[in-house]
Amino acid sequence: MQLRIYICLLTIGICHSLSAQALTQQLRGKVIDAETRSTLIGVTVQVERLAADIRGTTTDLDGNFLLSDLPLGRGTLKVSYLGYETVSMALEMTSAKEVVLEISMEEAITNLQTVKVSAVRRRGDARNEMAMISARSFSVEETDRYAGSRGEPARMATNFAGVQGSDDSRNDIVIRGNNPNGVIWRIDGITIPNPNHFGVAGTGGGPVTILNDKFLANSDFFTGAFPAEFGNGLAGAFDLRLRDGNNQQHERSFQFGFLGTDLLFEGPISKESGSSYLATFRYSTLGLFDFLGVQIGTDAVPQYYDGAFRLQFPLKNNAKLAIWGLGGDSNIDILPSEDERPDTTNQLFGVEDRDQYFSSYMYTVGLTYTRPYRDKGFHKFGLAYASSGPKSRDDYIYRRVVDDRYVVDSLPPILGFDFRESKVAGYYFLNQKLSAKASLRFGLNAEAWQLNYQDSTRTLDGIEQTLAPWRTRWDTETGFIYLQPYVQTKLKLSQSWQFTAGLTATYASINDNSLSPVEPRLGASFTPKEGISYNLGIGLHSQLQPLYLYYFGDSTVNDQLQLENQGLGLARSWHFVLGHDRMLAPALRLKVETYFQWLSDLGIGQGATSYSLANSGTGFNRLFPPPLINGGNGRNYGVGLSLEKFLAKNYYFLITGSLFDSEYRAGDGVWRNTTYNGNYALNLLATKSFPFKNGSRFDLSAKYTRAGGRRYGPVDHTASARQAEIVFEDAGVNSLQFRDYTRFDLRFAFHLNRPKVTHEFAVDLVNVFDTRNILGLTYAPNNPNQPIREENQLGRLPIFYWKLDF
């Protein structure tokens, strides 16, 4: 029935589109020097749709350009200027929104009075000029193009070589075998808390993102050996940018779909000054689908809302001030006590023996100020306040089965916690252009943290079914300072050779062991001819342990909680990456990277145990480790291949494959597989567009994923029965492997341009064939004949939306 409705909508839209009058749109923006932020005059800006359809203009005295009456649809934007490297990027014009761009160009090192430079910054190249390898940019359009990505940067990134997801119900990302907690999330230079709804302490993901792609500009994603300005991360980094609102026209957007109802407003505050506003808000609609009887993968209905805003004010001398914020709130009540029959429980996010009332929040507000410096560089300053945390209450379910139905006897509380992490974060850097061949950037990232952790619990004897007295595990209100100075430089020796070098260090007053040695970061690129490059990246990185672990205690002395992990130091990692990048055709790119990563000082259990934080960072549960020390090691090594056909001639494809090993060594001295060591991963992604009149089009996208299964070990049945939860045998950790993970996704999208209005209808069919991939093992205390069972990931899940831009 739903498919019939969708086909009817598409048919009606196509008929309207084909009968509509010719529609046009305008493109405008500004072109600046990447190193100095100064405007460039006389730059050639061209839009090419077909070989015979090229429109062009040049920038004025303020670096601005305007192209009017452009036909709708996709094309290529090329920006060229004497003495600078040409910029090329994909472009799409729609009827509802004009396209406003800020384009940065890098100066070429050759004297261009007599020589023509052919270097091009290609689609997919990172915006950060210090990135030589293991980095790429991505756009909002890409997050919508990939089947199964749900419009999220994290899920989109799992299509890249060396990157995997955690499970279908969450957007954690595993980069080259590292746990997801090692990923840095940064917006406008500020490191932000976990940007996901239902975030749990010590993790970097969640089931639904707070980041709405409608307010993001083109951003960078790093998978290793990232520049010196990034600190406190071992795996990778998202460097996200918020876009400015339209400073000349008021525009709006409305979206209704499976994941929420969205509103967006943007426009000028003052057309004369060029100031603008942008604001978004989203509220979940999953409750509506539950009311209509639509299966959403769990009996519990998540509720959430999020939003963001950005105000930008151009100032004198090309300076700019931006005030921004984003955040969200979420809650879910998981109530197995309301299930009447043992075989009807469908609580993907909970466990059968307790009711859980869980909530979380995250918000960040900040400002950034940018000002050119004597036409030779620019200053940038940022300041923000961020706060986040989960909160939960659990009630244990005493029940019995009567006439094949559950009867609840009582619901005594068994757990309560409230974790809050807040910080004031700031940064400053000066980017200095020394010459066409060299640039220098130095700066400081600083954070003042305030932590408040409260937790009390009662343990359960799974055999006797009795609750012990209450005990406290966290009772802390404290703070600390984090500092990360850095310096980095880029040197272009010739058109063929480029180098970057940087130094950074980390200091945290959380304890005496949280001072890192100087961390070098090096990069090199050799381009023997246009379209071919060889790249190298080396770097030492460090990271604090998950903050709440420092204040965990499992015993008291004289009513004083004894903290077990206050002496933990920083974990460290060396990255070594070697890559080859080749353009096989004007729109076809091959990239191969091989890497080795050595991790040291990882948190591990004391004594001859297999416990290591290398296996943490996912799921909806906090860690309760044994007392930890910095003594663990890890090694990740492998090779990744990407073959990407950029969107041209109305089709796109991306093929990525990885072969890898991810191992760790804990206190018992044995090298073992990490939980994330699936050994291989393959992604096949393709999109085909069918264009109609006025830039309207129908898109068909497909994605196939196959990867090695997650690792696990033999279950200790006696200990599991005693604790009423899964307990694995220590000696056999990760010696077993679940069957391979496979998934096929489809996406259908129709884009309809009408006068001043653009409609978009889209359906993502996630896991089309309803493949029953294994999520993990779970303990079912109400099934004594088979208390240990496999828990499957999400089955088939249709996700749709209708978006209206006007």
Task: Map the helices and strands.
Blueprint: H1 2-19, E1 24-33, E2 44-50, E3 53-58, E4 64-71, E5 73-80, E6 86-93, E7 99-105, E8 120-121, E9 135-138, H2 140-145, H3 153-157, E10 163-167, E11 170-175, E12 183-187, E13 190-191, E14 196-197, E15 208-209, E16 216-222, E17 236-242, E18 251-257, E19 260-270, E20 275-283, H4 286-291, E21 303-314, E22 320-334, E23 354-373, E24 377-396, E25 398-402, E26 405-410, E27 413-433, E28 438-457, E29 460-461, E30 466-467, E31 471-492, E32 497-504, E33 507-508, E34 519-529, E35 532-543, E36 553-557, E37 560-563, E38 571-585, E39 588-605, E40 628-648, E41 651-665, E42 671-673, E43 680-691, E44 697-707, E45 711-712, H5 717-723, E46 736-737, E47 741-754, E48 757-766, E49 774-779, E50 788-792, E51 797-805
Parallel strand pairs: 1-7, 6-8, 12-17
Antiparallel strand pairs: 1-4, 2-3, 2-5, 5-6, 9-16, 10-11, 12-13, 14-15, 16-17, 18-19, 18-51, 19-20, 20-21, 21-22, 22-23, 23-24, 24-27, 25-26, 27-28, 28-31, 29-30, 31-32, 31-33, 32-34, 34-35, 35-38, 36-37, 38-39, 39-40, 40-41, 41-42, 41-43, 43-44, 44-47, 45-46, 47-48, 48-51, 49-50
Question: Would you kindly provide a written description of the structure presented here, covering whatever features stand out?
Answer:
- This protein is mostly beta strands.
- Helix content is 5%, strand content 56%.
- The chain is built from five helices and 51 strands.
- The strands form eleven sheets. It has a 22-stranded antiparallel beta barrel.
- Strand 49 (774-779) and strand 50 (788-792) form a beta hairpin.
- The longest helix has 18 residues, at 2-19.
- It is globular, with a radius of gyration of 27 Å.
- It starts with a helix and ends with a strand.
